[in-house]
Design brief:
Elements (H helix, E strand, L loop, with lengths): L4 H15 L6 H11 L6 H13 L1 E4 L7 H12 L13 E4 L4 H8 L5 E5 L10 H14 L3 E5 L2 H5 L3 H15 L3 E5 L8 H13 L4 E3 L11 H18 L4 E3 L7 H14 L12 E3 L2 H14 L12
Parallel strand pairs: 1-2, 1-8, 2-3, 3-4, 4-5, 5-6, 6-7
Helix pairs in contact: 2-10, 3-11, 3-12, 4-5, 6-8, 9-10, 10-11
Length: 311
């Protein structure tokens, strides 16, 4: 395809910038993530971390078998994760497919829990741009106040950075007042250098959050990948003054895992990111373990895994 002069200039500028970013020391990133993962927090700090992690959960169901009843139950759980304990905080959001937005919107109305929806031909991203934009507009019109989009990984890996940038920018515009989380699908990006470049590209295009994964590709979220993304949002704020959040998703199942991520956030981006507006967990099973650990701290004993609803 013959590029116009304007696109060619934009493409050249993006390539120069993205490939001029400092390279990622993969061994160093893995070692630092592993070291931070050994940090231990106890008593009051642990209790606070568990509550914070609950407040950061995007409780998610993205299955072809989803039903209105399942979505309503998930919304009820997001609002009152532990019906027996009114002090337990609500989750950050419920994330569903676009077809389930009206059901979730009705269930969450007035609760303060956000409604997120995947859009843009999730999880593959393989659809024409006009379809992706229509998908996004329909999701927002139906009640979603957060949109999780997937980038075109094929275009990114082929080096068509301007195409990816412009697509993200167009989806951001289609979001209107809704926040945009841009899913990089890091398991398909192959290198940490690509994770850094994709993070910057998404932020330059207007992303409100950068997100690791759809949860449909392995590996999904990892500590080294999240470390690189946290460094990117930290450096982006230093250079532009704009704050962008981070959302690891897929494979985070235990309270112990969640606390490792919180330590990583604090030590890399700083305490400013220890807030649901700036850090989220995309998870379907994490919440139950957080609740079990929370109950253990309150009562001194573990409850059975069937004490809380299965999602």
């Amino acid at each position: 395809m013959t590029l116009t002069v304007e696109v060619a200039r934009s493409q050249a500028a993006l390539r120069t910038f993205l490939h001029g970013l400092p390279g990622v020391d993969q061994v160093g990133a893995e070692q630092r993530a592993a070291m931070l993962g050994t940090r231990s927090i106890k008593t009051t700090a642990k209790a606070q971390a568990l509550d914070l992690a609950i407040r950061m959960v995007d409780l998610t169901t993205l299955e072809g078998s989803d039903t209105p009843g399942k979505v309503r139950a998930l919304c009820a759980k997001a609002v009152r994760p532990d019906p027996a304990d009114a002090t337990c905080p609500s989750a950050a959001a419920v994330c569903v497919y676009p077809a389930m937005i009206p059901v979730a919107a009705e269930a969450l109305r007035g609760t303060g829990v956000h409604l997120a929806s995947v859009a843009t031909a999730f999880p593959s991203g393989q659809a024409p741009l006009d379809v992706k934009l229509a998908d996004t507009r329909a999701a927002v019109a139906a009640g979603a106040d957060e949109i999780d989009m997937v980038i075109s990984r094929g275009a990114f890996l082929a080096g068509r950075y301007a195409e990816v940038h412009d697509e993200i920018a167009a989806v951001k515009e289609a979001c209107g007042g809704a926040h945009l989380k841009v899913i990089l699908e890091t398991g398909e990006l192959a290198t940490l250098d690509n994770v850094r470049r994709a993070s910057w590209l998404a932020m330059l295009a207007g992303a409100d959050f950068v997100k690791t994964s759809t949860g449909k590709v392995q590996p999904a979220a990892t500590l080294p990948v999240t470390l690189v993304m946290l460094e990117a949002v930290r450096d982006f704020r230093e250079q532009t003054g704009r704050v962008v959040g981070v959302k690891p998703a897929g494979g985070i199942r235990t309270a112990k895992d969640a606390i490792k991520y919180l330590v990583l956030v604090n030590e890399t981006a700083g305490p400013d990111w220890l807030h649901p507006d700036r850090f989220r967990f995309g998870a379907s099973t994490l919440l139950n373990d957080l609740l079990m650990q929370r109950t253990k701290m309150a009562t001194g004993r573990y409850c059975g895994p069937d004490y809380f609803t299965l999602d």
